[in-house]
Amino acid sequence: MVVIGAGFAGLSATRHLRDQPVTVTIVDHHNFHTFQPLLYQVATAGLDPADVAYPVRTIFGREPNVVFRHGRALSVDVDTRRVGLADGTALDYDRLVVATGATTGFFSVPGAPQHSLPLYTLADARRLRNTVLGCLEAADAHPEDFDDGAPTFIVVGGGATGVEISGALLELLDVSVRRDRLRIDRERSKVILLEAGERLLPGFEEQASRYAEETLRLRGVDVRLRTPVAEVTAAAVRLGDGRWIGAAAVVWAGGVTVDGTLAASLPSAHGRGGRVALEPDLSVAGHPEVFVVGDAGAVPWGPARSEACPQVAQVAIQSGKHAAQQIARQLQGRSTTAFSYHDKGLMATIGRHAAVAQLRRGPILRGTLGWLAWLGLHLVYLIGFRNRVVVLVNWWWRYLDWPSGPRLIVADVDADP
């Protein structure tokens, strides 16, 4: 059988198939798994790329029935049961798990794909970090090139990623002036968070949204609600009311889509954002041997709720496990069962010592307590003992002080000095 994608969903499915009498080939165009919830810290120079990535071959190195294939899956022929790869080869399957995730959704905003910086992959995080640090260095050397002599960073989207990157950018500005002695006007340097909706963190309860907004405002982020973006250029953003805001860089955290990914080509109905419509057991209608999990599918919440689950890590992990269990049932000649999502809550960090943790039961944790809960959960799910130790030490050191972190502008090709 074949699993396409080594994200949370693909790894979960593969892990729960390793004890089954099958050979699993997991395919990904990266040879590593990325811990996406911490990408914003890579993007703002809090962590190194290697701290949030782990080789897929190492994860399954001791599993004799798991094979990794480094390559890009381009097509799925459900009639011949073959997966076509970019190198011209193909993989046959008797069962298939599509865990290709999603990609950045720009939602037809002119200029957004060309001039904004998404944050969905490790490459996105590296590019964003290089751009932001480059802007800070440029503002130090040539303040006359910036409005008010200082950089303005605009974040589009008030979901968890937008909230987290906004708080982290503000902290990066602070440490760059205080510890790196960059000659930029900190008072005039800005982080502006634009959200088209009525509140931040729309998937959270209202009190969590209010806390996030109030905390960001108190720390200096310019939060603007009910402010859609109409256009992005190389140096500015046009708002829905026609006003323009100059920007040194625009971070796009406005959402994701399945359109343009492999899952979008499957012969199935597709819902909002291109997500694949699924049967209750997470298989594709008419093809019980094909399962779609994680962000790629419109994963049903369960019998009690008709809407699709949110595109978050817990849904990916649980849906990957469920698909593996259904494949095991099919191999045993048993009927499949419907998926039911167990909501364990939502978390978002707003910055140092501040986070919200909305658990399934009990009060919403805020401030330092929420931040500690957020840290603990992410350490549990982070893959690799070395990564856990490095990230823990890094966070603990930053809790005591704010040292010089990996604020390095690393280009892929060296240039002459």
Describe the secondary structure blueprint for this structure.
Layout: E1 2-4, H1 8-15, E2 24-28, E3 32-34, H2 39-43, E4 53-55, H3 56-59, E5 66-70, E6 73-77, E7 82-85, E8 90-92, E9 96-98, E10 103-104, H4 112-115, E11 117-118, H5 122-141, E12 152-156, H6 160-178, E13 190-194, H7 206-219, E14 222-224, E15 229-232, E16 236-239, E17 244-246, E18 249-252, E19 256-257, E20 283-284, E21 287-292, E22 300-302, E23 305-308, H8 313-331, E24 345-351, E25 354-359, E26 365-366, H9 367-381, H10 385-400
Helix pairs in contact: 1-8
CATH topology of the largest domain: FAD/NAD(P)-binding domain
Q: Please report which band the strand proportion falls in: under 5%, 5-15%, 15-25%, 25-35%, 35-45% or over 45%.
A: 15-25%
Q: Total domains, how many? A: 2
| Main pleated-sheet profile | 6 strands, mixed
Description:
A hairpin with a 2-residue loop joins strand 20 and strand 21. The N and C termini lie far apart (51 Å). The protein has helices spanning 8-15, 39-43, 56-59, 112-115, 122-141, 160-178, 206-219, 313-331, 367-381, 385-400; strands at 2-4, 24-28, 32-34, 53-55, 66-70, 73-77, 82-85, 90-92, 96-98, 103-104, 117-118, 152-156, 190-194, 222-224, 229-232, 236-239, 244-246, 249-252, 256-257, 283-284, 287-292, 300-302, 305-308, 345-351, 354-359, 365-366. It has ten helices and 26 strands. The radius of gyration is 22 Å and the shape is globular. The protein folds into two domains: 2-29 and 71-102 and 258-331, FAD/NAD(P)-binding domain (3-Layer(bba) Sandwich); 112-256 and 346-400, FAD/NAD(P)-binding domain, CATH 3.50.50. The chain is of the alpha/beta class. The strands form eight sheets. It has a six-stranded mixed sheet with strand order 5-2-1-9-21-20, with helices on one face. Strands 11-18-12-13-14 form a five-stranded parallel sheet. Helix 1 (8-15) runs parallel beside helix 8.
